[in-house]
Amino acid sequence: MEYAIETEKLTKIYENSNVKAVDGQDLKVPSGRVFGYLGPNGAGKTTTIYMLLGILTPTSGTGKILGKPLGSKEAKERIGFLPESATMHLHHSGFSLLQYYGALLNMDREKLKRRAEEVLEMCGLSKAMNQNIASYSKGMMQRLGIAQALLNDPDLLILDEPTANLDPIGRKEVKDLLVGIKEHGKTIFISSHILSDIEQLCDRIAILNEGRLVKSGTIEELIGDSDISLEDFFYKTVKGDNHAGS
Amino acid sequence: MRAVSIIAKDTLLELSKRKVLLAILIAVILTAVIFIVAIAVEPLVAERMAGQITINGSRPAPDQIAPLAKQMQKHGCNLLVTIFTVVIELLGTLLALVMCVSFLPSEIERGSIKFLISKPVSRLEVIAGKWTAACTVLLCYSAVTSILQVLASLYLTGELTPDDIRAFPFLFFKLLIRGSVAMCFSVAMKPILAAVLAFFISGDIFSFFANFAGDSPVRYILAAISFLLPNYSIFPVRSPLNALAHAIGAAAPDISILDFALRGIYAIAYSAAMLYITIRWFEKKDLT
Lengths: 246, 288
Hints:
The complex is a heterodimer of chains A (246) and B (288).
Chain A: E1 3-14, E2 19-25, E3 28-30, E4 34-38, H1 45-53, E5 60-65, E6 68-69, H2 73-76, E7 79-82, H3 94-104, H4 109-122, H5 138-150, E8 156-160, H6 168-183, E9 187-191, H7 195-201, E10 204-209, E11 212-218, H8 219-223, H9 230-245
Parallel strand pairs in A: 4-9, 4-10, 7-8, 8-9
Antiparallel strand pairs in A: 1-2, 1-3, 1-5, 5-6, 10-11
Helix pairs in contact in A: 3-4, 4-5
Chain B: H1 2-17, H2 20-52, H3 62-110, H4 112-117, H5 123-157, H6 162-188, H7 191-200, H8 204-210, H9 217-228, H10 240-247, H11 257-284
Helix pairs in contact in B: 1-5, 2-3, 2-5, 3-5, 3-6, 3-7, 3-10, 5-6, 5-11, 6-7, 6-11, 8-9
């Protein structure tokens, strides 16, 4: 099986607080799948994502992303990323922001213009594309974040809480958008708290607790024939792991 | 290089929209207006003062007042140009500090650095882009204010001092070092602390004391410290000493071409060293 993301004993200890946020993680994300990355607050999901992209430097361990070293330029050219609750460059309009990010992605000017208009349309921001983003609502900002992540038609899409800040309609639209991307054979890596979204979208999931990967597999493999929901399974896994740990 | 120029261009756009440049521009214009008003009243002040002074215990004769007033006006104008350049230099320092301490912390604080780093852009390119933008702004500031200084000197005294001619490169070198030090500190500490330290840490005082240490080893130690710390005293934009020397017709300490080149090399090498440290620190930093 070909993997879009592979990590080996990936560890992150924050020097200032001496907290082990990620503890020897061996993560394997198959290509062409939608992969759900679950865990309670502070489990180390965002820290892992930041290490994959080079925003944080791992304390130890290695990994590959699309076959290239973590955080490498070659890999990042083929990745789209939506961080959780980060503010974009507020001096831009939606369209000019995409022009800026597209230029950094080495996109051809004409192609970039067309693609920017296309992704803004896909994310329902066509009407507001020339509006300064400082005036955007949280939901619009989230949709713009998704638009910039889709700009380079990435092979791997990494989304940290993509449906947070969205109303039910916005959530439905984003989910439909992701289903469309999935149909094109792209790999999507989603970190989310909203288990119903994960259940609807993901082929495989991994559950993270206190920096360690505690379960990984398809939803069917993990839950099996039992009647419990993903929410119950998640709760039991995390609570059980906490008791085993203590 | 492409990413560096794209980030530099965007940083300049952001600076213009954040109105930092506008605030400094307004301050320069206000200074120039105050200066023009001072120039306008200078002949009146000189004439009035010439009539009030006493020479050897007696007031000057009526036919002595006009040439005396002219002489006093020339000295007064020289002083005005010096005050103007000191204010301009302070404003430039403020611009360099405010701009350079905020570039990286603001990207990290609001989280926009995550969007940048997730693109095929290295940390080195982010720093180089910000630094290029800072250099561009400081270069423009130095050029515009130096032209004002040259015009003011020509208009008021009809001649240029050597300081006026060197004003542009020296002001730029000074601001370049100041900005590079500020940006370097901003990676490791809070912006306000970085600005304060970058303002006060200077080798000038050691350079000053080295002049009084004779030919002893202490002189060389002090001189070495003065150059290890950022030494701004070797870039006299228009020193009061030179202005005074010029006013009384004495020769100001001259700077040879070689000396000028060495000072330029010092400024570029010091800024490059600061940039290198900034990159090394920034590459190790967790950007969250």
